[in-house]
Specification:
Layout (H helix, E strand, L loop, with lengths): L1 H22 L3 H24 L6 H15 L3 H13 L4 H23 L20 H11 L6
Helix pairs in contact: 1-2, 2-3, 3-4, 3-5, 4-5, 5-6
Length: 151
């Protein structure tokens, strides 16, 4: 268990340093650290699974690794990691977060394939009502299309 905790700690430290570099405009260096962070967190998750550490630790580690994969646009790896987490027996709240992340990753993959870029002059005001639990998915859509959104 100690090695798993050390890997997780290393992953979070690398991600924190990558965040700082990204804010400073060093995107390439940040990407390199995000990839290293993903490797460490993924290793921690698979070691936890292999050692039967149990829930919620296993699903939390896989969710974290999937989020890192998503952040570097490695959508296929994010899907794999989400599926690994859901294949276990995650607590219902974590399972819902994993499903929401899966939806976001799927949306990003679809939009990437379509290479959709809306025309600047095509604008329309729309009001929608969504369940609170789907708010993250709406945020991704809003960001992707450059929409304005008021909650």
């Amino acid at each position: 268990m100690m090695e798993i905790q050390e890997l997780h700690t290393q992953a979070m430290e690398l991600a924190d340093r990558a965040d700082l570099l990204k804010r400073q405009g060093n995107v390439d260096e940040a990407l390199c650290l995000y990839k290293q962070s993903l490797e460490a967190e993924r290793d921690a998750a698979y070691k936890a699974k292999k050692q039967n550490v149990g829930e919620p630790t296993e699903s939390v580690l896989f969710r974290s690794a999937a989020s890192l994969a998503y952040s570097i646009k490695d959508y296929r790896e994010a899907e794999r990691l989400i599926c690994m987490a859901l294949a276990g027996n995650p607590p219902s709240e974590i399972a819902e977060e994993l499903r929401s992340l899966y939806d976001i990753v799927s949306l990003e993959k679809s939009m990437e394939r379509m290479e959709f870029a809306p025309a600047d002059k095509e604008r329309e005001n729309v009001t929608i009502t969504i369940p609170i639990k789907e708010r993250n998915l709406l945020n991704v859509i809003v960001k992707k299309f450059g929409w304005a959104c008021v909650f």
